[in-house]
Amino acid sequence: MLRSGVRSAIVLLLAVGACGFPYSFAGGGLPSHVKTMAVVPFENETASPELQREMFEVLRRELRGRLGVRDASPERADAVVRGAIKAYDLDVPVAYSADPNQSVTARRKLQITLDIEIVDQTNGRVLWQRKGLRGEGDYAERAEAEGRRAAIIKIVNDIVEGAQSQW
Length: 167
What we know:
Elements: H1 4-18, E1 36-39, E2 43-44, H2 49-67, E3 70-71, E4 79-96, E5 105-120, E6 126-140, H3 144-164
């Protein structure tokens, strides 16, 4: 015997389905016509020239693999990813040496902040946008590249999740 709450939920679902309500539990993602994507190198407003190249390469590779799109030139792509790297703050102390006679830090943190948008080129609609998207990466003393990679991966994960979560 069904409880009245379960019975009510079933009746509600059947009623919504009968009304032709166009909702489904199929999830979001990019529109079905977006098969190709171009990643335009971001404007780099920081003093770190390698950041633009690294961001471009990782973003292009990960979007292709994780969103199931093919690379295309900006002129031919169904969607384009563009943005600006706004800040690159490095050398933020995280942990310090246990020796009280030394003031040398053992771990550091860096932050990358950017503005980004994914635009559907067939209709000009912004599919996903984020201003002030920030990624952080911890790194050992004198291993900035390690922290930069971690921050870039964090940013790319946030972009992929954002693009996939669109309803």
